[in-house]
Amino acid sequence: MRNFTTSHKNKLILAESKNNLTKEENFVFKKIVQFLKIRKIIRNIKSYLHHATSAQIDK
After folding, report:
1. What is the pLDDT of residue 1?
2. Do residues 11 and 34 lie in contact, with contact meaning Cβ atoms separated by under 8 Å?
3. Residue 21 gets which letter from DSSP?
4. 42-57 pLDDT, tens digit each
5. In whole angstroms, how large is the CA radius of gyration of the chain?
6. 33 in Cβ contact with 9 (< 8 Å)
7. Where are the alpha helices (DSSP H) in 1-59?
8. What is the pTM of this model?
9. What does the alpha-carbon distance between residue 30 and residue 24 come to, in Å, rounded to a whole number?
10. pLDDT at residue 43 in the model
11. pLDDT tens digit string along 1-27?
12. CA of 4: how far to CAs of 1, 9, 15, 24, 59, in Å?
């Protein structure tokens, strides 16, 4: 799944760099990138919380 999203994102970046996207496609592209960034932030927060709670338990 992770590889799919990365390659999919790269294809979209490539398409945008060729400047052949319609306004709708450009909007969707930006939303996908935004979603992937938000998902990464959420994953980082979950990881941080997991480490923070396990550190507390270890004390």
Report:
1. 46
2. no
3. -
4. 999 999 998 888 877 6
5. 17
6. yes
7. 2-17, 23-58
8. 0.48
9. 10
10. 94
11. 455 567 777 777 776 566 666 788 888
12. 5, 8, 16, 22, 40
Which token pair is 9? 């994102």
Both tokens of residue 38?
């938000």
Helix (H, G, I), strand (E, B) or coil at 34: helix
Kindly provide the b/e burial profile for residues 17-47, where b requires at least 16 CB atoms within 10 angstroms of the residue's own CB.
Answer: eeeeeeeeeeeebeeeeeeeeeeeeeeeeee
Closest CA to 12 of 31, 29, 28, 36: 29
- Residue where the block lists tokens 């550190």: 55
Q: CB burial class (10 A; 0-12, 13-18, 19+) of residue 11?
A: exposed
